[in-house]
Amino acid sequence: MDRRVAEDLIDGRLSWPQLREILFHPKDPERFQVVMDILRERLGWEEPVLLPLAEHLYVVQKGSQRVVRCDCGFEFGDCRENWKTKARVLVRNDESLLRELYPQMMHSDPEWMELREFYCPGCFALLEVEAVPPGYPVMFDFEPDIDGFYEWLGLPLPSSISD
Amino acid sequence: MARAKGDVGGAPIGWDGKTVLAMLEESERLFQETGRYQGIDRLELKEGDHFRYERAFAKLRGALVAARETALHISASPIVRNIGELCFALYTPEGDSVAVSTGIMVHVHTMSEALKWMVRNNYERDPGIRPGDIFTNNDPDVGNVHTTDVHTMVPIFWEDELIGWASGVTHQVDIGANTPGHDPITPTSRFEDGFHLTCERIGENEQIRQDHRLRSQRQVRSPLYWDLDEKCRAAGAYLIRDAVHRFIAEEGIDYYKRFTREVVEEGRRIFMARVRERLLPGRYRAAAFVGIPWKEEAWQPKARKDFICHSPMEIVIGRDGDFFLTMEGASAPGFHAFNCAEGPMQGAIWVLLSQMLVYDGKVNDGSYLALRHYFPPGTWCNAQDPQLSYSTPWAFLIPAFTGLTRCLSRALFARGYREEVVSGYGFTGDAIQGGGTLAFNGEYWPAANFEISAVGLGASAVRDGLDWGYAMWNPESDQGDAELWELLEIGIPYLARRVKANTAGYGKYRGGSGWEALRLLVGNRDAELYMARADGLTFMGSGIFGGYPQATSYRLWSRGSEIMDRAAKGQPYPLGDDPDTEEFEQLVGGEVTRRATAMMMPEIFHDRDVLHYVLSGGPGCGDPLERSGQRVVDDINDGIFSERTARDVFGVVANRDEGQEKWTLDKEATDARRQEIRRLRAERSVPYEEFWQRERQLIEEGQLGEPVRGMLRESMGLSQAWAQEFRAFWKLPEGFQP
Fold this sequence. Notes:
By secondary structure, chain A is of the alpha+beta class. Chain A has helices spanning 3-10, 16-24, 31-43, 95-99, 146-153, and strands spanning 49-54, 57-62, 65-70, 75-78, 88-92, 114-119, 126-132, 142-144.
């Protein structure tokens, strides 16, 4: 994929006809590299970025540790642990908090289900919303096998400058 | 007299003098031993003449699509004829799908299960499998979703050998369950699910037997639709059989046999390659919940219970590309209509993967063979009890598989394939079901609306979800014209259909919007109506990356409305409902009922009553504060979001330009509002540790509501692993019960 098109894709600037072309065609195997080059340049971090984990969140090689970091710079710690445990949390577990978002009767009954909003403590971006019954364990959504993934790609793992 | 092949006790009809059962056992052994379909090492036909191979696949695929497009015109049911709720597939003698038509593809694998059930039960020996035989199945415990999906299966012979099966499925308007409709919600056991046909031979010599026709037409409330749907399936299957015979005449039987093997193995390899191409090794987790508030409402005493169905999902992708999906910890089955057999769960994996990963590959049972799954026996998703009710497994299955879309989307996002991300989909819950009797001629009309085929799709990571145009179980979804539904549901014409504001899940990219309809009862002796949507007290699934789940549904109707009097005076009536205002109450009048529960048990309605319903939107993706302000304003102008939602959820302030009758963006006020919301987030949120302590306290002190406690106890009782994980997460002592 052309770098310019990839930038527009990341920024949500592609029109439906352009997206349709991309969806209809076989996937470009170099996409990960093209997207990572753009993201690394935009983030401008000294440490190598290994993987985009979610909107705003990246796995970064920091010395010998792999950490989850928000694009604002806030660090959530080791990527083997759930980043949510370092987030700020708002639980919408009563009628008034749910009614801030949804019209009457168009939201869950808080006794049956609550909304948990996980924010970045650095920039207060909303990173994930869980819709779960009260008392349900916090979901560890994604634990990527980064070494295995780079093996799949046939690429060397970017090493930390401080290594 | 000598016995012919396929007759009871006759010579084997499988290949090379084997029985079909021996072929199936050998196929499974070879797969176990080699990990490859039929132990195929090299795709010799593909490698030898690539063009011939691809042309061969196109011929079969084309024949299946043509059979579907032709046969559906035999049906009279709008569900089949206009919405396209049918599908055809070609199978190997053992029951593995080779190629499929368009349509309700979720059934391609369930029919495979039914065929294998027949082979395993040695139908070849008794009742026999002969040229010209017609078999039918709709038994959910054998290989089906629910009784209203009816399969017709026709064996294809070449000379003395069974070389495959042509099968078709249609979705019935009614199946003679304890209430009218196609997704009944009141059954609590098999004996209320309606007419069952458990892989029965219903025809010989290419003719449907008269005894079957007479019996089946007496078993359902809409015999005309039943009869023509059955003819539609049989005609389609014979079109496929004839196409296969032409294929063999052109390509030769040896080529056909080898080809049907290779193409399934290729389907498996394509799936494996797609996993490496688009996903990442690692562990992915999601969960979905459905709350059923039936303590007061259920008809049968044993069904009177408030409960939550728990559908956890974990996917582990190994470095070797192994794809393993488990629902360890799922809730128990029960005395309700939402139990599910394993076959439909496999079918659901298959239908979603064929939309998300292998939509341009060889879509067949190869994809099914390429992954491993575990649906715990004795849970709602693999109930293993033929006496349970399986009338409407969709109520739990549809929410459960939103987990699959979110899990795969995390991988697609990480790989840079952001255009493929999908945060989930809307709840294809029934708009209206049941039926009534016309006053002037006593004729019965069924309500079996398939507008549900057009709900909102979840957002991707680069664009909004498709508005009112998606159904997870049929990639070719269609809302259907209101006028068409009125031909079927003649006693309940439409007053209005319109976009339902605030049903699209909020996010940087919003989910596809849902919509709403108003119906008026006219000219009836009586009518019994209900709705099966199940996301009233619980959201269906979640959004992703900070996106919110779409709004839940609710019930609204008026008895003895004043709408006819108002119409006579030329006064306006509403085109929908805003639950935050009383417009409906004021403009419709009568005795208005509003309920937060989405499901509606059968209710008797009369002329002049007005019924409202909501079709779901899809979930969102990303933080709503990052959505372009102009896009939010466009949404207000399009009726997707209200001005209040724009301001309070998206932080977008819009001003009304009365001259142009449009909303415009107030950029400065929007910047300030977004700052204010970020400040509120900082003020009102707590550190994770504090949140964790508060939630733990609820559990420890027994403050959780009974449906939640019941759900947790049930999952812990069914799965030691889930119980351990739960206790470990909350640091609760061994043996603790919520």
